[in-house]
Batch of 2 targets.
Target 1
Amino acid sequence: MALPQAIKAGLPCMNLLRMTAVPILEQLYLEERLLRSSAENWCIINHGTSLPTIVMGISGRPSELVELKPVLRDQIPVIRRFSGGGTVIIDNGTLFVSLICNKNAIPGLQPYPHPIMSWTGQLYGQVLCEFGDFHLRENDYAFNSHKFGGNAQSIIKDRWIHHTSFLWDYDARNMEYLKLPSRAPKYRSARSHVEFLCRMKDYVPSRTSFIEGTIKSLGGHFSIRPFDLDELGSLSSSLSGSTKLLTRQELEEACTSQCVAVR
Amino acid sequence: MASRLMWASQAASFLRISLFSRAFSTVIKDLKYSDTHEWAKVDGSSVTIGITDHAQDHLGDVVYVELPEVGANAKQGKNFGSVESVKATSDVNSPVSGEIVEVNSELNGSPGLINGSPFEKGWIIKVKMSDAGELNSLMDSEQYSKFCEEEDAKH
C-alpha cells in the first residue's frame, strides 16, 4: 500500500484518480457513482478514450444534435450523460478532467452553476494563462475566441461535479457527425466546428505540463491524495443512474423522425 | 433607494408576500420551505411542490425539466427529478414523503415557467402526503427568508 501524502494543514482532502484510455461510458458511470455514493472529493483525469464517441447532455435529442445517417453507418456510439450542457464528439485526443466536491469544500463558493463555473475557470486560468490568451467565454474555455474546453455540471444536495472535455487534439473529420447546435453561445457567431474550435497542443507544450499545472493549482485548495482505480472496489461498478448508451433502435427511430422533419 | 424599499415593503405586505431587501427574491407567505430551496403548498393531504424564486434566480434560465413518473414515491429530502440550466443539472428534492399523483407536464414544452412563475405555473409535482408530521421540519416564510439571507451572506 502506498504511503499517503502528508495532509496539508486545514485543507480538505481530494483523491486524484489518473486513468488512460478508459472508455468514456465507464468514466461517466464511475463519476455518477462517486457523485452520489461517495462523501469524498475527487479529481479524475483520463487521457483519451478508445473509440470516437458522441456525448450529449441530459436533455440532448439525437435527431436535433447528431447527423444520424453517418453515425449509424459508421456505428459511432452515442451517449446521453447525467450532467447538463451540450454535445461533444470525443476521441483519443480528448483529455478529461472532472472535479467532484462537497458543497463546503471551497469556502465561500455557492453550489450553483455560475459560481462553480467561475471558480473552476479561475483554477484553469492559473494554469493556462501563460500559454495563451485564456478566457472563460460564456461557459467554455477558449484561447481568444476559439474553444478548446467544454464544461458540464451536475449539482445534488450536498455535492457537485464539474467535468471538462479538453481538446488536446481532435480529428476534424469527426466533427461531420455533429449538427450545428441550435443553442450555441453568442461568441460562436455561427462559425463552423472547425472555425470555432482550437487544439490545446497548439498552445500548451505538453499534456504533462497541463496536468501537473492543474494538480498544482488544485493543491492550493486541497490536500491531494493519489488514488488507484483498483482501490475503488464496488464503487467502480456501474450504477443504474442517468447515463445511458443509446441503442441502435433508438438512433434509427431518431433518424426516421429526422428524415420526416426534413421533408 | 429608501423610498423604493418602503414602497416595495408596503406592496409586499398588501400582497402577502415577503421581500428581503438584498436580492428581492420573492417568498410567499403560507407556504412551507425546505433548506434545499423547494416550496410546499399544503391542501389537506395533497402537497404541491416547486422550487423557489431564490433557487430559480441562482440557477439561471431553465431549459429542461426531468419529471418523475406519476405513481412513483417521493421521500422527504431525496431527489425526485432535476432541472437543467446553463450547463448544469440540479436535483430537485421533495420536502415531504408520499405518492406522486400529478406532474406538471406543461414544463416539458415550457421549462421557463419555473423562472417566470416559480410559485404558480412553474409547480413541478403534487404529492399525496404520507406523514403530515414531516411538515414540522420545514421552514415558514420568515424562517426561509432569513435562511436565504444568511446563505447569501456567507458567500
Target 2
Amino acid sequence: MFSSSQFDGTSAFSGGGFMPSQPSQLANSTPSPAKNCETQGLLSVTVKQISEASQSGDEKSNFIIDGVDVNNITVVGMLFNKNIRSSDIRFHLDDGTGRVECIRWVTEHFDTSQLEALEDATYVRVNGHLQSFQGQKRLSAFSVRPVTNFDEVTCHFIECIHSYLQNSKVQSQSGSLSQSQPADSSLSTPVRGASNGYQPSLMNDLSMQYSADGLKSFDKLVLNYLQQPSNIDREMGVHVDELSQQLKAPKEKIKDAIEFLEREGLVYSSIDDYHYKAVEGC
Amino acid sequence: MDTSNPAAFVNGGLLGMHVGRKVRAVIQVIRSDVGSVLGKSTDDRQIVVKGSPPAPLTTYVEVIGVAENDNSIRAEIWTNFGDTFGIAFYSF
C-alpha cells in the first residue's frame, strides 16, 4: 500500500496523513475513548521520540508515543553502518535527533537489491514496526526507500511536529471528546499554518455540546430540575408548562428534551402526558 | 538507540549559539571554491562551509558538521538537495 506511492511533493504530503483517516472512519461506527481504541495508521516520528517511547502494559507489547498506541511508524533519516547478511540487512538510521537500529528481513533477493546498493549518508524513508529486542528498541522495517525530493525531509519533520501537537492535545482533552479527528487536518496541507487553526475549533464545538455522559446540556437542565428532591416527592409529577416557565425555555424545546429523556429511561409520565417525573435511583 | 550526538537545525542567526557542537543547515550555494563553499542560510546570512564538497554541487546543499564560529561550519557530511527545494518551508 504505502510502498507504491511516488516521491513527488503531493505524495510526500499525503503519505503521513492518509493512513490515519482509515482508522478514524472505522471508529465512527463504534464511539470509544480517543487514545485507547484508535491506533494510528502510520505515525511520523523522530528517533528521539522513539527513544522516549514507553511500553504499553497489554499483551500486544506495543509502544506508546505521546499517549498514543504506536502500530507502524515512518522515519526519515540517513543510513549508516549497513550490514548485509544472508537473512537480513541491518543498518542505523540517523535523523539528527539520534540513531536507531533497523533491520530489514530478506526473503527474496530482488526485494532488497535497491537497499544493498545504497551508500552511507544517504537519506532514506523507513516504514516499519517498533519492537523491543534484547532490551533495545529496534525498527523492523518493511520498506526502505531512498529520498529523491528533499522536500520530503522538511515535510517529515513538520508531520512529526504536527502529530506530536495533535496527540498532546487529544491527551489533554480525552475526557470531553468521544472521538479524535486526526484525519481532517492531516489531509489538508500540513505545511501551511491553516491546519492548526482548523482543528481546535472542531474540538471546541464538540466539547461544548456533549458532556462526558452524552447528555446535551439542556437535557441535563430538565433532568436536574425533575430530580430535585422537592419534585421527586410530588406524586403527580411536574407539568411541562411549569418546566417551561422555570427553565425559561419554549415548550417545544421542553418537549424534545422530555422525549429524549423518556427514551433514555430517565423520566416517565405520571398522571397524564403532560406530567413527568424523574426515575429514582439514576 | 543512541541519542547522544544530535545535530541541531541552525540558520545564520542560530549558528553562534552552537559553536563547537554538531549542527545541520541547508544553504543556497553562492560560490564554490577549493576547500570551502560560500552559501546563504535560510535567514539570508552568509555562511562559509569548509570541507570538500561533492562534485557537482547543486544549488541547495545540506551540511552536517561542527560549528566553528557564528558564520562558519566545518562540514563532515554534504548532501545535495537539488536545485528546486522549498527552502522557505525548511525554516521551522
